[in-house]
Amino acid sequence: MKVGKIIKxxxxxxxxxxxxHNKKKKEKxxxxxxxxxxxxxxxxxxxxGAIRQVGFGGK
Length: 59
Hints:
Shape: elongated
Number of strands: 2
Strand order of the largest sheet: 1-2
Radius of gyration: 19 Å
Helix content: 40-55%
Structural class: alpha+beta
Number of helices: 3
Largest sheet: 2 strands, antiparallel
C-alpha cells in the first residue's frame, strides 16, 4: 500500500493540503540557465538529451 493511500484514508484533510501543494507549477529552465547554474563543472549531453555531470572543472 502506498503512503498516499494511507494518508488519504487516515487523514483526508492533510491529504488535500498536500495535493494542493504538489500541483504548483514547476519552473522550467533553459539550457543557458542550466549551464550558468552548473558553473565550473564539466558536463555532457547523455542519451535522450539529459545533461549529466562528468567531473569537476578544476583550475
